[in-house]
From TrEMBL:
It comes from Nocardiopsis terrae. InterPro entries: CdaR-like_regulators, Diacid_rec, PucR_C-HTH_dom, PucR_C-HTH_sf. It comes from the Bacteria. The lineage of its organism: Bacteria, Bacillati, Actinomycetota, Actinomycetes, Streptosporangiales. Pfam families: Diacid_rec, HTH_30. Residues 305-354 form the PucR C-terminal helix-turn-helix domain. Gene3D superfamilies: PucR C-terminal helix-turn-helix domain (1.10.10.2840). Residues 10-139 form the Putative sugar diacid recognition domain. This is Carbohydrate diacid regulator.
Length: 367
């Protein structure tokens, strides 16, 4: 931040806002001069842009200067002029018009006040700028149109080094239309993250996105409520993999019900969720209707079969005898026309359960 201030000249707009804020509290005119001694803010618009010779002396001698008798042909007025220091660097001059000895102490106080207000505004501008840059970077990664070389350059410019990971949080309940809704306190969480050089965050597509390297902070650490839906990707040093993760996350924001919620009971497949998120809405409706008649026990059977290596393992997962599991499998075939002992049929039924989750009609979380 100090480097930004050294590169950027003192803003006349910022200085004028500060003058307009302070001036009503005192009975004297206030001038703010830039590092060359030119008046950039004043209650008298006619003096803006003119050279202040007293300010030039302050800059040359790096000390306070009292102007008792202005020289002929100048716009100077009697008063006290103080150096304006920001981060220890002389950035300009603050002058208070009046009998010099009477306003000398006041000028010191005013200069300190101007310094504080300008510093605060710079910090607010810097936070706003980082927030905008983070949003633009994350949006570019997920757009699907950014070239890998450009993405790598933008990551480097943001100070983000590999391995990169991407995390996503949404509110537990989607918006009325079914799209993602950012969790409460998402904006404040993003602002805090963007104040640290190691990560970037933005609220985008109805979710809080977090981009960075290293371990992903927990929901509590970000100040988010415990009921958020959340997913994160493993770290990668390949920028195209990161871009793929970003595009996938953007698709998942269309159907936040696909994201695992708090206390998710079983395995969750990002690949299945992403595949379902890309399907047309009518296809989701058709798929969800196919498994709608299934009971909770039958749905859990599908989940167990999809995440197990054998019928015995699946039976143990749902705590039933193998024969009971086979009875459920037969009942699922009678209801859906699909025999989940066949890998292709199991994949279809499993995706149908994810389709239900996407539409918000699932009785259990997809697994």
């Amino acid at each position: 931040m100090p480097e930004d201030r050294r590169r950027t000249p003192l803003s006349s707009e910022t200085a004028q806002r500060v003058v307009d804020l302070i001036a009503p509290t005192i009975s004297h005119n206030i001038n703010v001069m830039d590092e060359h001694g030119t008046i950039i803010a004043c209650l008298d618009p006619a003096r803006v842009g003119t050279l202040h010779h007293g300010a030039q002396r302050v800059i040359a001698e790096r000390r306070a200067v009292l102007v008792t008798e202005p020289g002929p042909g100048t716009s100077d007025r009697p008063g006290a002029n103080e150096p304006l220091l920001i981060d220890g660097e002389l950035r300009g001059v603050v002058g208070v018009t009046g009998e010099p000895r009477q306003v000398e102490d006041l000028a010191r106080v005013v200069a300190l006040t101007v310094q504080l207000l300008i510093t605060q505004e710079h910090e607010q501008d810097a936070v706003s700028r980082r927030h905008t840059e983070a949003r633009d970077l994350i949006a570019a990664l997920g757009a699907g149109t950014t070239r890998p070389g450009d993405a790598r350059d933008r990551l480097a410019a943001a100070g983000l080094r590999p391995p990169w990971s991407l995390a996503l949080w949404t509110a537990q309940a989607p918006r009325p239309g079914g799209s993602a809704s950012p969790p409460p306190a998402a904006e404040s969480a993003a602002a805090r993250v963007n104040g640290d050089g190691g990560r970037r965050a933005a609220v985008l597509h109805g979710a809080l996105w977090l981009l960075g390297s290293g371990r992903v902070p927990g929901t509590d650490a970000l100040g988010l409520p415990a009921g958020c839906r959340h997913t994160s990707t493993p770290g990668t040093e390949d920028v195209e993999t990161l871009m793929a993760h970003a595009e996938e996350s953007r698709a998942l924001c269309r159907y936040p019900g696909l994201l695992p919620g708090p206390g998710h009971p079983g395995p969750w497949s990002r690949e299945v969720a992403v595949a379902v998120a890309h399907l047309p809405r009518r296809t989701l409706d058709r798929m969800a209707a196919r498994t709608a008649p299934l009971s909770t026990a039958q749905r859990r059977t599908v989940t167990a079969m999809a995440s197990s290596g054998s019928m015995r393992e699946a039976a143990d997962t749902v705590f039933v005898h193998r024969n009971t599991l086979l009875q459920r499998v037969d009942r699922i075939r009678a209801v859906t026309g699909l025999d989940i002992r066949r890998p292709d049929h199991l994949t279809t039924v499993h995706m149908c359960l994810y389709a239900e989750a996407a539409l918000g009609v699932s009785h259990i979380s997809p697994g």
